[in-house]
Design goal:
The structure is a homodimer.
Chain A: H1 6-11, H2 14-27, H3 30-38, H4 46-53, H5 57-69, E1 73-78, E2 81-86, H6 89-104
Antiparallel strand pairs in A: 1-2
Amino acid sequence: MMKINAKQLTSLDEQTAADVAELFRALGDTSRVRILTALIDCEINVRGLAEIVGISESAVSHQLRTLRLMRLVRSRKQGREVFYCLDDDHVTSLVLQGLDHVVHG
Amino acid sequence: MMKINAKQLTSLDEQTAADVAELFRALGDTSRVRILTALIDCEINVRGLAEIVGISESAVSHQLRTLRLMRLVRSRKQGREVFYCLDDDHVTSLVLQGLDHVVHG
């Protein structure tokens, strides 16, 4: 049944919708999906990510900048090394939900 | 700490990663985000969605085709009317997680 009400009509303003769309676009790239999936369980540095994803370290760094900007990953410095992990449990479940939808329908 | 293991290196093949990225790209559009959000609680027809999102009915139909292709929405015929809803609870939580990340960080 169609049940439109005023709350719904105004529930998602244009700017919020645009921000959500931008977030999903940040997730909509094969290399970035592989980086995020690799980071689900652990902290990894750029060299490790390049090895896992099979792209250059500079390409990994480029993708990490986008992912940090969207608060999807965060970094931690340890001596001269920088390690990356998913920003929080939200991000983990976002990635896992996407994976689940594709794998299990 | 960097903990790379063989399982991880092979855990997400290129095709699966590409499929997940494609799914997120389908979510990465302002109108589609607004359509999906409107469908969280109820079934709505094309006319209702056009009213809520503020785009033409033909634009809504175009976006619904993309969303159906990605199994994000499904339809139900009732007489001459076709009503749309989110495909399943996965999709609902995917949309809500994205919204949550943007609104609450």
